[in-house]
Amino acid sequence: MKEIIKEFVNGFKGLTKGSNIELSNKADGNYTSNKMRFVIGEYITRFVIDNIALGNIDNFLKDVSSELTKISRDSGLSHTNLNYFRKFYKKYRNQPDLAEKAFKLSWSQNIALLKDKLNDDERNYYLNRAIADNWSVKEIERQIKNDSFDSFLNE
């Protein structure tokens, strides 16, 4: 397993080399940082597919996170975030229009949208509203909880 983790970390270094992108949640770099999160999510997904013998993906990502935090100053490489990067990629990989919208939001806003089991129409609605109305994370969560998408359909 250590060799597989080392292979992953080396690939990760190559992926992010020269990018100077911090994955912390800074408003001025949402688009670029989220695009990098998407690319990292793709890398994780493809690596896991290519290394099926990994067994438990969750344990693998915990070990990878531990190794990545040793080589990076970036606090955005936690086990939880690596899982979200993977989910972020899987959610938007076949939907470039939605991905472009998601890249514009803060990472916290995206996590709020990833936590709920929204269908594509609902996700599109909440992405559009979050961008247009400058919704905070709390507002996104409140709107989802109150089913504002359903209210919108019934108007």
Describe the protein's architecture and organization.
The chain is mainly α. It has one domain (2-153). It has nine helices and no strands. It is elongated and about 55 Å long.
Number of strands: 0
Number of domains: 1
Biggest β-sheet strands, sense, barrel: none
Roughly what is the average pLDDT, rounded to an integer? 87
- Principal-axes geometry comes out as elongated
Briefly characterize the structure.
By secondary structure, the chain is mainly α. Helix content is 72%, strand content 0%.
Write a concise keyword list for the protein shown above.
mainly alpha; 155 residues
Topology of this protein?
Layout: H1 2-16, H2 30-50, H3 57-71, H4 79-92, H5 96-104, H6 107-115, H7 120-132, H8 137-145, H9 148-153
Helix pairs in contact: 1-2, 1-3, 2-4, 2-5, 3-4, 5-7
